[in-house]
Write a structure and sequence with these properties.
The structure holds three protein chains of three kinds. Chain A is mainly alpha-helical. Helices cover 81% and strands 0% of the residues of chain A. Chain A contains nine helices and no strands. Chain A has helices spanning 2-11, 14-49, 57-71, 75-88, 95-120, 124-132, 137-167, 179-188, 193-226. The longest helix of chain A is centred in the N-terminal third of the chain and has 36 residues, at 14-49. The mean pLDDT of chain A is 92. Chain B has a single domain (8-216), classed as MetI-like (MetI-like fold). In chain B, 77% of the residues lie in helices and 0% in strands. The relative contact order of chain B is 0.15. The mean pLDDT of chain B is 90. The mean pLDDT of chain C is 93. Classes of the chains: A mainly alpha, B mainly alpha, C alpha/beta. Chains in contact: A-B, A-C. The interface between A and B is large, with 41 and 42 residues.
Chain lengths: 227, 225, 245
């Protein structure tokens, strides 16, 4: 215990603090880019998945397969697979790019599902009424469905965002300099593992907890608005 | 390009991988039921306990749900030895996953408790059900029906979560994939095959859970789409 | 020449055969009611007419023109002539009453906004809701929402109005206000197909009553005949059960 207390000033040097700060930034960057791309492309996936024409059948098929695959593979395995694909086909060396791309692919699949759920939660009669008045598929989505669906989509999407912060910890395994990797480095440098990993746990908590509270507050507000 | 994708070498290791998958399932099931057990206790404390116990559980759940499972296991494996507790990789992973699961499953089960509607209980009371009968015929079936989907979902998440055990050297599915990779260097083949195995086992799990849910708990769950 | 002619029409909902060899004619200005037990295909028939359920076989003629429900421009033209009001969830929850009524005429029919608004306000006045222009659907009662839905349908200037169990989801005290609105429309000469369980209303307002059961048209006749002396036994069974209440 005393050893721990002795180490603390050595641990919390300016260099280390900046180092951890940068790592936190990488974690956040991965999460935010992933979710932003995930929301955009996930939205597209959801929209095209519910089209009706025969011509778009291969697209719908592809979307279903894509979504099921990336939601049924562990994060770690996706990262490893992408890592080796990029390495073997010499696409890029940059670990951050590889991780970001993987993260985007995964987030697209998950958020796509959330958006699809939100769209499907809107009563079928809203679709029928609009179609019967000659709204096109995209007009129904734009004028009627999405304005109602976003309230249903936002809470789980935000939840996913918060969960995703924790999932990015696995990017440490392909060498990306995010928070978990930073902890490993500090540990390897000889600092106490309790201090290294403990601090990282606290830092993740600091990232996640306020967002979690905000998410719960937002959910309450949306629910009360509906009444 | 210089690399041709050839599966034959890796396919020889298929039985080895499948046995690894069984270990993954083992970890998932143990951690899940461990988490259910403690989660139930915590959920009960949260619903019925006194203020101090309630707050302790809240702290526990808040901590474990706001930090990554990977780092929790890192802590157990690397930091505990500093205070004299040495855990094998398998135990570190199992305990870490159980503690994590307990937090999430506490919240899920608590939601189940809160979902009992008063008029169901009133109806049972007016029919002169004893407390035990109320629990058996009204409360329990309702809770099981409400809880089965989110619990099944979390089980699937945990099954996929077992893959981080590989990082600590446990030879479950992903761990074995890493072994094969370092032996044969057929990275794309081995990891794509591993991915496929995960997809298959989660499909089987989803399918079985949907069947169980429908016939035993009257909980309607979709398998795909 | 009948305004609507349906010949040997069959339709399926997935594998379920919901419309079996339907033959039916509707004259211009006629008020035709469809009655029958749940699942008999009454709503499916209305949905089919407006293109929400594609027929597998058979013919539909509208104003003497044959309609191909798989053809996009045919569909558009049908929906410009027929308007439908559903049992519930008609109004777009994210728009106020005025916008609900105006949106399709302005955005889809591409009519002049000012004209549409004027017509909308007139129609809403007609159904008794002129003071609710800026209200949102969740601020209105079920009966008020349905009256707005009827106004919205009328603002499309349809030749034919379909009413699919429009009072079935309403609290009993709200049913009359909607029936009163329909009564007014009936007296103005619009062709209407009404699916309803309100038997006394059906008897009072209809020119013809169609009894359907299990996807088929069993009997088509004057309301007096259907309710007092039906030809078919199944019609008699249904009508006597219903009228007992």
């Amino acid at each position: 215990m005393e050893r721990l207390l002795e180490e603390i000033p050595n641990f919390f040097t300016i260099w280390n603090i900046i180092f951890l700060g940068k790592a936190m930034g990488v974690t956040l960057l991965l999460t935010v880019i992933g979710c932003f791309v995930g929301f955009s492309f996930g939205g597209l996936l959801a929209i095209f998945r519910k089209t009706k024409g025969i011509i778009l059948l291969p697209l719908r098929f592809f979307i279903i397969i894509y979504t099921e695959i990336f939601r049924r593979i562990p994060f770690l395995v996706s990262l490893l697979l992408m890592f080796y694909v990029f390495q073997i086909f010499k696409i890029t060396d940059n670990l951050f790019v590889i991780a970001t791309l993987t993260v985007c692919l995964i987030a697209t699949a998950y958020i796509g599902e959330i958006i699809r759920s939100g769209i499907e939660s809107i009563n079928q009669t809203q679709w029928d009424a609009a179609e019967a008045m000659n709204f096109s598929y995209y007009q129904v989505l734009r004028e009627v469905i999405f304005p109602q669906a976003w309230k249903v989509i936002l809470p789980p999407a935000f939840s996913f965002f918060i969960m995703f912060i924790k999932d990015t910890a696995l990017a440490s395994q392909i060498g990306v300099m995010e928070l978990t990797f930073a902890a490993k480095i500090l540990n390897n440098k000889g600092f106490s593992p309790m201090l290294s990993f403990g601090t990282i746990l606290v830092l993740y908590f600091i990232l996640s907890f306020p967002l979690d509270r905000f998410g719960k507050y937002m959910e309450k507000k949306l629910a009360s608005n509906r009444n | 390009m210089g690399y041709t994708i050839v599966y034959t070498q890796v396919l020889e290791f298929f039985p080895y991988l499948v046995r690894g998958a069984l270990i993954s399932l083992q970890i998932a099931i143990l951690a899940f039921f461990g988490g259910m057990f403690f989660g139930l206790i915590f959920a009960t404390i949260r619903t019925f306990g006194n203020r101090l116990m309630n707050n302790l559980v809240i702290c526990y759940v808040t901590f474990f749900t706001n930090t990554p499972q990977l780092v929790q296991i890192y802590f157990l494996f690397f930091a505990l030895p500093e205070v004299g507790i040495l855990l094998s990789p398998f135990m570190a992973v199992l305990i870490g996953m159980t503690l994590n699961a307990a937090a999430y499953l506490c919240e899920i089960q608590r939601a189940g408790f809160l979902s009992i509607r008063q008029n169901e209980l009133d109806a049972a009371k007016t029919l002169n059900f004893t407390l035990i009968q109320q629990v058996k015929y009204v409360i329990l079936p309702h809770i099981m029906k409400v809880l089965f989907p989110p619990l099944s979902n979390h089980y699937i998440i945990m099954t996929l979560g077992t893959s981080m055990a590989a990082i600590f050297g446990v030879e479950e599915l992903t761990g074995r994939a890493l072994n094969i990779n370092s032996e044969t260097f057929r990275s794309i083949e081995v990891f794509s095959l591993t991915a496929l195995i995960y997809i298959v086992i989660t499909f089987i799990a989803t399918f079985l859970l949907a069947l169980i849910g429908r016939y035993f708990f009257k909980a309607k769950m979709r398998i795909i789409q | 020449m009948p305004q609507i002619e349906i010949k040997s029409l069959n339709a399926y909902y997935d594998k379920l055969h919901v419309l079996k060899d339907i033959n039916l004619n509707v004259e211009k200005g006629e008020i035709l009611s469809l009655i029958g037990p749940s699942g008999s295909g009454k709503s499916s028939l209305l949905k089919m007419l407006v293109g929400l359920l594609t027929p597998k076989s058979g013919e539909v003629h509208l104003n003497n023109k044959s309609i191909n429900y798989t053809n996009k421009s045919d569909l558009r033209s049908v929906r410009e002539q027929i308007a439908i009001v559903f049992q519930q969830y008609n109004l777009f929850q994210n728009m106020n009453v005025l916008k609900n009524v105006c949106i399709a005429p302005t955005k889809i029919q591409k009519r002049d906004q000012k004209q549409v608004e004027e017509q909308a306000i007139n129609l809403l006045e007609k159904v008794g809701l002129k003071d609710k222009l800026k209200s949102y659907p969740d601020e209105l009662s079920g009966g008020q929402q349905q009256r707005v839905a009827i106004a919205r349908a009328l603002c499309l200037n349809p030749e034919i109005l379909l009413l699919d169990e429009v009072t079935s989801a309403l609290d009993p005290e709200l049913v009359q206000e909607v029936l009163d609105t329909i009564r007014i429309l009936a007296s103005e000469g619009m062709t209407m197909l009404i699916v309803s369980h309100e038997m006394s209303f059906v008897k009072e307002v209809s020119n013809k009553v169609v009894f359907m059961d299990n996807g088929s048209v069993i009997e088509v006749n004057d309301p007096k005949v259907i309710f007092d002396k039906p030809k078919e036994k199944r019609t008699l069974d249904f009508v006597s059960k219903i009228l007992k209440d």
